[in-house]
User: Which sequence fits this backbone?
């Protein structure tokens, strides 16, 4: 056999061996992560949707996402790609999305972790509002949210940004905490 052919065969064998080793290693790492994720888990749901009703049987909010795990240790729930829809009759619906989330054991506090998108649909002559921020804490009752991260607000005719955000859905208050600046385009 010629030297270039032998070299090519050795190189292909080496590439195949490294590929096999990397695939096996990735599979082992995936199994370790899955085992760690389910350790101490009471239960988990995938592709879930839950509706919370008020005392009159009307939908108060809806929570859906890719995965929810309830932890044995404290009863807290961990969420992957949560979407929280807050119904506010007769007002507009607010939708909050994030990369991950956490719900306190008694459900009175929700932390939306990573990039957070908050959207209010246009309704009854009101413009839609879109807010982009990070790491936001929400209290379903009294329907307030807060973050210290940079926040960007956009409506049909205005844009604003600042550091930190306070949002009170019951009283319809949206406040950029500091270093706020914005642009309004009259129509």
Assistant:
């Amino acid at each position: 056999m010629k030297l270039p052919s032998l070299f090519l065969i050795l190189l292909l064998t080496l590439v195949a061996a490294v590929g096999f080793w990397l695939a096996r290693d990735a599979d082992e790492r995936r199994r370790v992560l899955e085992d760690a994720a389910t350790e101490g888990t009471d239960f988990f749901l995938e592709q879930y949707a839950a509706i919370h009703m008020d005392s009159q049987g009307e939908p108060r909010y809806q929570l859906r996402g890719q995965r929810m795990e309830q932890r044995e240790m404290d009863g807290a729930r961990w969420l992957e790609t949560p979407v929280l829809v807050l119904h506010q009759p007769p007002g507009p619906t607010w939708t909050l999305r994030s990369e991950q989330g956490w719900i306190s054991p008694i459900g009175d506090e929700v932390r939306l972790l990573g990039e957070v998108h908050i959207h209010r649909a246009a309704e009854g002559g009101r413009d839609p509002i879109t807010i982009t921020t990070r790491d936001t804490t929400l209290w379903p009752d009294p329907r307030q949210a807060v973050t210290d991260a940079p926040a960007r607000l956009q409506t049909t005719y205005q844009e604003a940004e600042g550091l930190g955000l306070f949002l009170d859905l019951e009283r319809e208050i949206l406040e950029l905490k500091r270093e706020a600046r914005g642009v309004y385009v009259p129509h």
Q: What stands out?
A: Strands lie at 41-53, 59-71, 77-80, 83-86, 94-103, 110-120, 129-139, 144-154, 158-168, 173-184. The first helix runs from residue 3 to 38. Helices lie at 3-38. The chain has one helix and ten strands.
